[in-house]
């Protein structure tokens, strides 16, 4: 029974660390802060236009993908800077790869946003 309790406690601790990491990202990382503001704007837009359940699912997945990759990119940059604080071509390449992954996710999120909101915006009666 003790082993099962240790498993549950360690999972709970892991969750606490994850929440702490999310708050640290939001508090300290400008790129994550910008993405969070964009996410909030998209949530308000979804409420305003009363988007469908399927559109909410796609929008939520896009937001989660971009925010997650921003966090992973930050972690990769921090590790790279810790390992080699001075400029190094290979470290720069690794950072560029991580930033490229965020770019792809953001591009897909923009496309999803256009696919969701274009019909609502075009059909607005002013």
UniProtKB/TrEMBL annotation:
Membrane-spanning residues: 32-51, 97-120
Q: How does it sit in the membrane?
A: Multi-pass membrane protein
Q: Which residues form the active site?
A: 70 (proton acceptor)
Q: Which domain of life is it from?
A: Bacteria
- Cofactor, free-text remark: Mn(2+), Zn(2+), Cd(2+) and Co(2+) support activity to lesser extents.
Metal-binding: present as a keyword of the record? yes
Specify which residues bind a divalent metal cation according to the UniProt entry for this protein. 29, 77
A molecular function (GO) term: kinase activity
**The entry's keywords:** ATP-binding, Cell membrane, Kinase, Lipid biosynthesis, Lipid metabolism, Magnesium, Membrane, Metal-binding, Nucleotide-binding, Phospholipid biosynthesis, Phospholipid metabolism, Transferase, Transmembrane, Transmembrane helix
Q: What is its cofactor?
A: Mg(2+)
**Subcellular location per the Swiss-Prot or TrEMBL entry:** Cell membrane
> Cross-referenced InterPro entries, in alphabetical order?
DAGK, DAGK_sf, UDPK
The record's Gene Ontology biological-process terms are:
phospholipid biosynthetic process
Give Gene Ontology CC terms. plasma membrane
User: Where is substrate bound in this sequence?
Assistant: 70
Q: Which family does the UniProt entry place this protein in?
A: Belongs to the bacterial diacylglycerol kinase family.
Protein name as it appears in the record: Diacylglycerol kinase (ATP)
- Source organism per UniProt: Mesonia algae
Organismal lineage: Bacteria, Pseudomonadati, Bacteroidota, Flavobacteriia, Flavobacteriales
């Amino acid at each position: 029974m003790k082993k099962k309790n240790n498993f549950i406690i360690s999972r709970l601790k892991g969750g606490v660390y994850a929440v702490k990491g999310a708050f640290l990202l939001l508090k300290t990382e400008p790129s994550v802060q910008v993405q969070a503001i964009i996410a909030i704007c998209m949530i308000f837009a979804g409420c305003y236009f009363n988007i469908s359940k399927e559109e909410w699912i796609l929008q939520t997945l896009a937001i989660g993908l971009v925010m997650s990759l921003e966090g992973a990119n930050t972690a990769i940059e921090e590790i790279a800077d810790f390992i080699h604080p001075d400029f190094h071509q290979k470290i720069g390449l690794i950072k560029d790869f991580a930033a490229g992954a965020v770019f792809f996710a953001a591009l897909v999120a923009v496309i999803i946003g256009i696919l969701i909101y274009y019909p609502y915006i075009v059909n607005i009666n002013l």
